[in-house]
Design goal:
Keywords: DNA-binding, Transcription, Transcription regulation. Belongs to the LysR transcriptional regulatory family. This protein is 41% helix and 25% strand. The chain has 9 helices and 12 strands. α5 links the parallel β3 (93-99) and β4 (122-128). It starts with a helix and ends with a helix.
Length: 296
């Protein structure tokens, strides 16, 4: 069976609305042709995609999997068309940019401002995730460009451009006993409770924090865990934990928290922030955004 874009769109809209009438209205068609189209789709696949009742429709397990893949196909088709237009007609359209959490506080706003000024015809579609996931999304074509933190596996398969170095700093509640010091020896925090990044969601950063503490002679005591850096910082803002965070976050105006450099050299305190894209990309938008990124 040959799947058309229209068939996939109809099924995706129906799964979102979970009602034939609402889906038909969203697709600017009547309900009977939509119902017939979905039935043809199910016959062609040889599986039931939907469970129907008087209140609407719900997805079967096969339907849920097919809906996810159908959306991915539609996104890929849209991205391919947009990329072809950029290459053929100059830099315009949409570029999919992935960014790790630590770069969203200072670096990303500057980049967005410069892209708007220099490339007014280009829109950035932003995705935020951990470095490993963003790398994989670039490899599979789900992203055009990503700004990540090293170390991360799989970089040898991508074009890598180092942008700047980033350091861990200590975030302390404003009333902490060490808040008045110009810098903080990490070993002096051995008895403190730490707010830590979730190692499943942010594996690279979680390992960096753990290694830094281990090299300072202690295992950090877990006072709380969070899936993103802003939530890690929230524990410190509340005064219940200390935390180690990328230096970019120290540039924000955060009440009730003081940021201090960590005293003494350590390879675990430093990481490179890099831009990655596919090696074979001829996309002028990627090249021009990368040029702007490097200007920062």
């Amino acid at each position: 069976m040959e799947f058309t874009t229209r068939m996939l769109e109809q099924f995706v809209v129906l799964t979102r609305e979970q009602h034939f009438g609402r889906a038909a209205a969203a697709l600017s068609m009547t309900q009977p042709p939509l119902s017939q189209a979905i039935q043809r789709l199910e016959r062609g696949l040889g599986v039931d995609l939907l469970q129907r009742d008087a209140h609407g429709v719900s997805l079967t397990a096969a339907g849920a999997a097919f809906a996810e893949d159908a959306q991915r196909l539609l996104d890929a088709q849209s991205a391919a068309i947009d990329r072809a237009h950029r290459i053929a007609g100059g830099v315009e359209g949409t570029l999919r940019l992935g960014v790790v959490n630590s770069q969203s506080y200072s670096f990303l706003p500057k980049l967005l401002r410069r892209v708007a000024q220099r490339l007014p015809g280009l829109q950035l579609h932003l995705r935020q995730n951990n470095s490993a996931t963003l790398c994989e999304m670039v490899k599979t074509g789900s992203l055009d460009l990503a700004i990540i933190r090293t170390p991360v596996e799989g970089l040898e398969q991508l074009a890598v451009h180092e942008l700047h170095r980033e350091y861990l700093v200590v975030a302390l509640p404003e009333g902490h006993r060490l808040a008045g010091q110009a810098s903080v020896p990490l070993y002096e925090l051995a008895d403190d409770a730490f707010a830590l990044p979730n190692p499943v969601v942010m594996p690279t950063f979680a390992e960096q924090v753990r290694s830094a503490c281990l090299h300072a002679g202690f295992t950090p005591k877990i006072g709380g865990q969070a899936d993103d850096l802003q939530c890690v910082l929230s524990y410190t803002t509340a005064g219940v934990c200390v935390s180690l965070l990328p230096s970019q976050m120290g540039m924000t105006d955060t009440q009730h928290v003081v940021f201090r450099p960590i005293e003494g050299p350590s390879r675990d305190l430093e990481s490179a922030v890099v831009a990655v894209h596919r090696m074979d990309t001829p996309d002028p938008a990627v090249k021009q955004v990368l040029r702007i990124v490097k200007d920062d």
